[in-house]
Amino acid sequence: MLIKTRLKSSTELSSFKMLTVCPFLAVTTTISRSFAMAVAFAFTLILAQLIVALFKKHIPLKLRTLFYVAVTAFCASLCELLFFITAPFVAKSLGIYLPILAVSCIILVRLESTKVEVFGGVAIIDSLVTTLQMFFVLIGAAFIRELFGNGTLFADVYGNGGIIVFNNAPVPVLITTAGVLFLAGFAAAVAKVIVKNRKNSARGAKKY
Amino acid sequence: MQALLVVLAALLADNFLLSKLFGVESFFTASEKPSQAALYGGLVTGVTVIGGGLSIALYKLVYLPLNIAYLTTFSTVIIINAVICVIQLFSSRLLKKHINKIEPALPMISGNCVVLGAVLIAVHNELNFGLSLLFLLGAGVGFTIVILIFSSVQIKMEKAAPSESFRGIPILLITAALAAMAFSGFYGLKF
């Protein structure tokens, strides 16, 4: 299961072409924190994509990029406010990385490819798929970082409590900024190998 | 003394790329040649200081007295994009020779976390206006330094020829991890 999650997450890392990795790499210190970030991402993406699907027809082509940026910023601000109202404890732990969703490249890229069909029905399915991919990446990375970097599982957003698996964390560097960059580097390498193998097997299938 | 500490912290200890992981994607998009990286870093610094300065002024003069600080994120994003549009307009009129280099870099800045992140951190730390401007300048220059370092690293990496699966993004990320470890040595420099 671990390998499966890891492989999936690494494939997504490469398929996203490393867009907007900044806030997502920084919040994966615990599973609960990255789950909160994933929920914030899902809320912002789905709302933004719905708004864009409804109004895209009426916006002139030249103003579309500005419109996407404004909608994303609006949705991210709304998400930040909702987090502060419903779960201020979590919002404070996410800190600066919650409003940073407003300049998220993934959201902007998804908005650009939004199709105006069936009153946003297609848009919602598309954003749900992106959200699921993001959940895999975030939870997978957080699982490895928390387990081997902190020695716990399911600790709260500040890294306290949870199930203690290792009394002394086996790889404490994983919890630091350098650790997450190492992890992302190795994940990207694994993803590259997987993509290459897939291409090779596809070519092999064509030959025979 | 505090001004010096603010600039040093933004430059080294709280380096936006290596300590806060803002704008990590710039490693792969902007740092192919040192000249290109310097141009991108300069543009980011310019947008950070001008757009960030305007946003912080708006926050201090309008939002704080009216108690509507929750609008900061939204307005900062809009101001950043307005500044980028103005730079595009000016460069298309005045710098016709360099427009081919400047124009592709501009849309990347609107998706760069450094500008918004610097403004929000300055607001969050309740720095006064002068110190905020210095912080924004330090953030931009720190970003440019790291981008420049990595553009040179990338050139060396091409000659070093790592194993095939690590070529490209993976080896750059691992180099960034080593650089982040080195930069964590400046951790004591806090304001």
Query: How much of the residues of chain B is beta strand, in percent?
Result: under 5%
Largest interface comes to: A-B, 45 and 42 residues
Q: pLDDT average of chain A, as an integer?
A: 80
Number of helices of chain B: 8
Report strand order across the widest sheet of chain A. 1-2
**Overall mean confidence score, pLDDT of chain B:** 85
Note poorly predicted spans of chain A.
1-8, 10-16
Molecular shape of chain A: flat
Estimate the strand proportion of chain A: under 5%
The sequence of SSEs of chain B as H and E is: HHHHHHHH
Main sheet overview of chain A: 2 strands, antiparallel
Q: Report, as a whole number of angstroms, the end-to-end distance of chain A.
A: 33 Å
What is the total domain count of chain A?
A: 1
- Tell me the Rg of chain A in angstroms: 19 Å
What is the number of beta strands of chain A?
2
Question: What's the multimeric state?
Answer: heterodimer
Alpha carbon gap, first and last residue of chain B: 10 Å
| Count of DSSP strands of chain B | 0
The number of helical runs of chain A is 8
Radius of gyration of chain B: 17 Å
Describe this structure in words.
The complex is a heterodimer of chains A (208) and B (191). With 208 residues, chain A is mostly helical. Chain A has one domain. Chain A is 69% helix and 2% strand. In chain A, strands 1-2 form a two-stranded antiparallel sheet. In chain A, helix 1 (2-15) crosses helix 7 and helix 1 (2-15) packs across helix 8. Chain A starts with a helix and ends with a helix. The relative contact order of chain A is 0.18. Mean pLDDT of chain A is 80; it is low at 1-8 and 10-16. By secondary structure, chain B is mainly α. Chain B has one domain. Chain B has helices at residues 2-13, 26-29, 34-66, 72-94, 99-110, 113-124, 129-160, 169-183. In chain B, helix 3 packs across helix 5 (99-110) and helix 6 runs antiparallel to helix 7. Chain B is globular and about 60 Å long. The model of chain B has no long low-confidence stretch (mean pLDDT 85). The chains are: A mainly alpha (208), B mainly alpha (191). Chain A binds chain B through residues 14, 18-23, 25-26, 65-66, 69-70, 72-74, 76-77, 80-81, 95-96, 99-100, 102-105, 108, 176-182, 184-186, 188-190, 192-193, 196, and chain B through 18-25, 28, 70-71, 73-74, 77-78, 81, 107, 110-113, 115-117, 120-121, 124, 165-166, 168-174, 176-178, 180-181, 184.
